[in-house]
Amino acid sequence: MSKSGRRVSAAAAVLGISALALAACGAAPTDSGKSSSGSAAPKIDYTACMVSDEGGFDDRSFNQASFEGLKAAEKDLGVTTKSAESNSKTEMKPNIESMVSAKCNIVVTAGFNIGDATKEAALKYPDTNFAIVDFGYEDRPANVRTLSYKTDEAAFLAGYAAAAYSKTGKVGTFGGAEIPTVTIFMEGFLEGVNYYNEKKGKDVKVVGWGDSKSFVNNFSDANKARQISDNMIADGVDVIMPVAGPLGQSAVDAVNESSNGEDAVVWVDTDGYEYAKNGKAVVLTSVLKKMGETVEESIKSGVDKTFKGEDYMGTLENGGVDIAPFHDFSSKVPSELQGEIDQLRKDIIAGTVKVGK
């Protein structure tokens, strides 16, 4: 979640004796010296750490996807991993400090809220590598790799699909907070709906972004997210795209309980068909950010001693963003529409269809 159009979903982690002094100020770090089950690489002398944004590593969204990249590196590369969950903004700085104190070779952080603390630590500790998910800097420190994503490109495809799927002519979206890494989804979604209207001579409306804006104003108030979702459904919205981390579950619950068998959700960050609780019956598609893959790549570059400060941008062209399969909705999405979306993806990559301002 960044200024200047960049996004970051950051997670940094740490443990060790030296971290204990700071544990009272932040989440107690967790050490994971063993790899997950299955064939694993031999252990090597390299420690990769991660600190979460608010929401924790089980948020079914960007924190969890980033954390899975850390665990994949543990299994595939043989690194030792350490992690700390931030329950509030005040815990982020001490969590990062505790990682550095634990001699982490690379510290990965996740999200807009942790951007300033990550930059401060990177400047203070120039010999430690840092990567930050969903955030970008105009004056990036030399030891930081930013991991950002043009999610508006993928959200454009989802908006087109949602508009085509809608039976009521109304689709909706709401955000956790009005920050760039959230609104880029909403803007891309709106542009996709508008493009569908232009090409098909339709007038599908978007509730929650554009003329009106819907935000929870945090990523923790599930009751408010549920109220927004219920109000949209009552207003005739039959496809909702929540861009609110774990609060997306409130939209899934609302659509499941609407019980008409037609309303749907567009999930974000991860594949909601797999990640959202009871999502299989209602998730039309998902706007994907390949955060786990880019986190693991960043750690691998440290292991290979090729790490350098740079700005990575995930796009449709390089596979850093996309939409998920339609899964159980495939029978409700005509092959003609799927073909149109495939062509639209190619057109965005070629630049013949422009996304973003």
Automatic annotation (TrEMBL):
GO terms for cellular component: plasma membrane
Topological type in the membrane: Lipid-anchor
Record SUPFAM superfamilies: Periplasmic binding protein-like I (SSF53822)
Keywords: Cell membrane, Lipoprotein, Membrane, Signal
Family, similarity comment: Belongs to the BMP lipoprotein family.
PANTHER family registered for this protein in UniProt: ABC TRANSPORTER GUANOSINE-BINDING PROTEIN NUPN, TRANSCRIPTIONAL ACTIVATOR PROTEIN MED
Listed name of the protein: BMP family ABC transporter substrate-binding protein
